[in-house]
Amino acid sequence: MQKELADLTSKEKTVFEEDESDDSFSSELASFLGERLGEAIGGLGKEERTELTDQLLSDSVSNFEENHDESKIESTFDKLFKDAVRKNILAGNRPDGRSSAEIRELSSKVGVLPRAHGSSIFNRGQTQILNVATLGSLSDAQRIDSLSPDETKRYLHHYNFPPYSVGEVRRVGNPGRREIGHGALAERALIPVIPDESEFPYTIRLVSDVLGSNGSSSMGSVCASTLSLMDAGVPIKAPVAGIAMGLVTDEKDFVVLTDIQGIEDSLGDMDFKVAGTRDGITALQMDIKLTGITDEILEQALEQAKAARLEILDNMLATIPDTREELNEHAPRITKLTIDTEKIGALIGPGGKTIRSIVEESGATVDVDNDGTVFVGATDKSSADKAIELINRLTKDIEVGEKYTGKVVRTTDFGAFVELAPGKDGMVHISELADYHVPNVEDVVKVGDEVEVLVTEIDQTGRVRLSRKALLNGSEEGATIGTDGAEDTSTRRARPNRRPRSEDSNRPRSDSRKRPGRRRPEGSSRRQER
After folding, report:
1. What value does the mean pLDDT take over residues 231-260?
2. Contacts 24+ apart (CB under 8 A), 181-186
3. What pTM, to 2 d.p., does this model score?
């Protein structure tokens, strides 16, 4: 049945007919180009070569367009150009005049963006990469929704390849295969040297922007990323550098090329990227246009790549010899705490309410692991100290004799309730608000006031009694804590004496100060009045 449906609906296959090569026209065009073709493929820079090549193609079309199609002229010209480049390379003459194992000019800088946590520019020939490192708290880690067992990703590398980097003008859209693939390769090259979360509890994001490209911008991104990490103070295990290797071969000979440029990648047979430290390789990627390569070719490519990698590392370390001892001043500071795992729920609160309130009040970030590890991140010390204080209040058991600074959350006729930590209140009795008689609670404190109090008692039901009087004037003599946590009133300070009476206080009270009452009629007695 399937075959019947296929016969009814299928279309007839198109037979591809390969254009027959016109050797006579190829010879005619080669003769027309003459020595000018040799000038275009040897000893010129990218811009000069492109300009001269475009001019030769334009002249060829103008000269042969009467007798041949323009597409045929262009394809024949491209073939002649490619064959000439490959023959020159096999003869030991690369397009820019370098030897097969020579690297283009290297240079680098760090700290080029003063506000960034880490930044660098890496140059290799006409390939230029700007890299920016940003450090964040662990809560900034990317969440992964895939079949991978990993749920988050704390190290990310993003790669941007804008059109202007290759002299083009076009729309900048979503990342394509190039951006995603090159970014993933550069990221993988650095994963082995990124410090563990326990050693460096930060989320790390690297962004490589290609400012100019003429071969292997992905390996340039590896070098620029290493420099940015070192500039930011990230304790990487070792610096990483990368290089791209090329290959040109015929039936008899082959040449392995170090640090290939765009034309050698386009017209060559291999693009073999190798990244690693002084001690070993961290990432590999190979693109080949052949059915395979020999062990001899691979061995030579790896040897040349190692020599080039070490040379690049020397140049990078001349810019910044080692990772900075201190984090950049603009980078957040992460403080690591450990709490009882039974207190994790109290710290997070219902629906995350408690931990959000800590973040809002302190301005710091707070991340909690299942093992009780808490990471507090802040850009200034005061925010970090405030968050740590709130966490300690919440997770540390309240003990008699401890001092707290809390907020008055409610007042009553008999005292004030002070919040010692989110969800934990204590009561200051009206008699413990001040070292004098307090007629009204709100004469001393109001809702929203912050007061310093001393824990004087925790009863069997967990209710906390506090004293403000004990801490007035820096003294704790006003309340003594007994062995059972209750206040010993025998050692209270005497209240201040009442206000002395005035000189004429011995005068009899006036009638107006008598207690008001109903007047008895004249001649009546109390008995009669009753």
Report:
1. 95
2. 182/217, 182/218, 182/221, 183/157, 183/158, 183/159, 183/208, 183/221, 184/157, 185/218, 185/273, 185/275, 185/283, 185/285, 186/157, 186/159, 186/218, 186/219, 186/221, 186/222, 186/225, 186/242, 186/275
3. 0.71
